[in-house]
Amino acid sequence: MGAMCGSAGHLFYHMIIVPYLRGYRIDPARWIDMPGAFGASGAVTTLVILHILMHPNNIVFLWFVPMPAAVAGCALVGMDLYRAYNTSSGTAVGAHLGGALQGLLVYLLLKKFS
């Protein structure tokens, strides 16, 4: 599910968000040239965010610096949001953010039914 939500986030980002940020008209004819993505980044981000939400006080290492998982999660999502705004980053930030959203949704479902 994380990989599929990552792919959906990637598609949404390139079909809707990038044209909006660059001031283009949203044009379905341009979607044929859109870069595709179906990979591990959305799935990995889902698992990372789910772990962070379930264990926010665990100490994790981000860039070799120990910090609480909640701080690392905010840094990771914040970096992806910054890169999403700067549309020329070359990173599949839509996939990362789609995976993060899936991790949040799974966490909320687990919390509701447990």
From TrEMBL:
Membrane topology label: Multi-pass membrane protein
SUPFAM superfamilies in the cross-refs: Rhomboid-like (SSF144091)
Chief localisation class: membrane
Subcellular location: Membrane
Keyword entries, A-Z: Membrane, Transmembrane, Transmembrane helix
Residue span, Peptidase S54 rhomboid domain: 36-110
Gene Ontology MF: a single term: serine-type endopeptidase activity
Transmembrane segments: 34-53, 60-79, 91-110
Pfam name, any one: Rhomboid
Protein name: Peptidase S54 rhomboid domain-containing protein
Organism: Ceratopteris richardii
